[in-house]
Specification:
There is one protein chain. The termini are close together. A hairpin with a 3-residue loop joins strand 1 and strand 2. With 394 residues, this protein is of the alpha/beta class. The longest helix has 21 residues. 48% of the residues are buried. The chain has an eight-stranded mixed sheet, with helices on both faces. Helix 6 packs antiparallel against helix 7. Helix content is 35%, strand content 27%. The radius of gyration is 24 Å and the shape is elongated. The protein binds zinc ion (2 copies). The site of one zinc ion (ZN) has 4 residues, from loops.
């Protein structure tokens, strides 16, 4: 049976996959600077004899064709960039690039996808269909490598009927995976706001236009966008984490600077909310004698897991791992640039459990102590190979 064969191959290559993961972990590179990572991935594809093309700066797309006749195409995606974090783990494979760390598990995604390519390459005489391996740069930084790869045609010639991606999740035990059909992750926009007034002595408010008081009103009023205008059935979040007035006990400043984030899961509402927030903040500042620059930097769209594809893929995962190892995920208001694939193609983004409480592997992604239970790599390489084969109709 093909499933048993894949599981055996995943075990056989497990140590190599771990070695690749550790190499990438030791040599992390920031978004849009993944030159050595790309060279490493390319050299591994060369060893396998799998053809690839460079794309979107440091991205690569590799293509493997099964030898049985079929015109089906599936794309598998792994992201490759790291974060500006100083690693605090004292492990033999600690980052050797000071201040840069694979703290989001993209080393796992890349090494796992290479492992999946190796497995599928070994059994190519036994399946039909084409697998595209998307090694994507710059997930962590706008405008996102996914949008660039799509713009350069990664989803054309041939066009995949499904795009499948995975992401590590330290909330789930190693050995398990999680799925959610439908809307899964949020769109994320950054807000940069300057409220302008007229500063002066704190004892003479009648001669000033106090931007601090205007800001207080704006901050409170904007919450109505979420509580009164948003459809309660669809989630929205508005948070301001930075408010700088920079006056003193007796000094009213000229302006107040704010930074915040707006997240939701509906593109129409997202556009409408942008207009409402801007109008409300500007109108309120004006009515109080000041002014307001309300800048919105659009981030990634929301991520939707196509219902039928996700139901199918989830079924294949249950087949491969057993029902008890496949969990339901809740919605998650963080963003991920895999969302771009999901906006233009049928896509499924699932979570790979990497937690091991006994060994103290529990830290969240984007923290200096993040690490994974590497046993998850045997599961992830084989599972993705199996999902691709089944989705191709084998
Ligand atoms: Zn991340
Ligand atoms: Zn990530």
């Amino acid at each position: 049976m093909i499933k048993n064969k894949i599981q055996e191959l995943a075990q056989q290559i497990h140590q190599d996959v771990i070695a690749n993961r550790r190499h990438l972990h030791q040599h992390p590179e920031l978004s849009f600077h993944e030159e050595n990572t790309r060279t490493f991935v390319a050299s591994k594809l060369d060893e396998l004899g799998i053809a690839y093309e460079k794309m979107a700066g440091n991205g690569l797309v590799a293509i493997l064709q099964g030898e049985k006749p079929s015109d089906q195409v599936v794309a598998l995606r792994g992201d490759m960039d790291a974060l500006p974090i100083v690693e605090a783990n004292e492990v033999p494979y600690k980052s050797q690039n000071p201040g840069v760390m694979h703290a989001c598990g993209h080393d796992v995604h890349t090494s796992s996808l290479l492992g999946t390519a190796r497995i599928l390459n070994q059994i190519k005489s036994e399946f039909g269909g084409t697998v595209k391996f998307i090694f994507q740069p710059a997930e962590e930084k706008l405008p996102g490598g996914a949008s660039l790869m799509i713009a350069e045609g990664v989803l054309e010639n041939p066009k995949p009927q499904a795009v499948i991606g995975q992401h590590v999740m330290p909330l789930i035990d190693a050995g398990k995976v999680g799925f959610r059909a439908g809307k899964y992750m949020a769109s994320t926009d950054e807000l940069y706001v300057t409220v302008k007034g007229k500063g002066g002595h704190g004892a003479q408010p009648q001669q000033n236009i106090d931007p601090v008081i205007i800001t207080a009103h704006i901050l409170t009023a904007l919450q109505q966008v979420v509580s009164r205008f948003a459809d309660p059935k669809s989630p929205s979040v508005l948070s301001f984490g930075k408010v700088i007035a920079n006056g003193a006990t007796n000094v009213i400043p000229n302006e107040v600077y704010l930074e915040g984030t707006f997240r939701t899961m509906d593109e129409n509402w997202r556009a409408e909310a942008h207009l409402k927030m801007k109008k409300m903040a500007e109108g309120m500042a004006e009515s109080m004698g000041g002014s307001c620059d309300f800048e919105i930097r659009k981030g990634y769209p929301f991520l939707i897991n196509e219902e039928k594809l996700t139901a199918r893929v989830r079924g294949f995962a249950e087949d491969y791992l057993g029902k008890e190892n496949v969990l339901d995920l809740d919605i998650w208001m963080a963003a991920e640039d895999f969302a771009y694939y999901s906006q233009v193609a049928d896509a499924c983004f699932y979570r790979l459990g990497t937690r091991n409480e006994e060994r103290g592997i529990v830290s969240s992604v984007h923290t200096p102590t993040f690490d994974v239970d590497e046993s998850a790599l045997a599961l992830s390489t084989g599972l993705m190979a199996y999902l691709a084969l089944k989705e191709l109709g084998n």
